Amino acid sequence: EVDPPGASAVGTLRYERLYDRRVFVALRADHPLAAGRLTLRALAGVPFATEPIGSRLRTRLEQSFEAARLAERLRVVLESSSERVLLGAVARGETVTAISCRRSPRAPDGVRVRAAGHLFGRLPVYLVSRLGHPPDRVASAFEAILVRCLRVESG
Asked: Of 12 and 89, which is predicted with more confidence?
């Protein structure tokens, strides 16, 4: 996956980068990986709860494990788009998970959240629009408000 740079056009689409989401790994506080250095090799073979195939985070996980020559050791046992479901599986001691968000997510009791940007990088969030199809006044106003809100929310 190649992320388009800044505000640029690719084909008939225009991508405006709004902000980046950070990647975190959540695991039980008593998990052996809760302390010490977090590496892909250490995560290889560990049961993972993650977003569904095709999601940006799942794609990034797969790419990272593949680049480290550990693709066959990414062991996904649960897929969900819900952060609550993913963190719940971690709290029950069934899995570890990766979450992408602006800042460290609130974790249930007994769950430790660790920054994992050194493993998975950041995930950019874009506003995508079609070239050659200018929005009408209402759509332009909505887009301006949406962009302003997203940038404020992202820090």
From this structure: 89
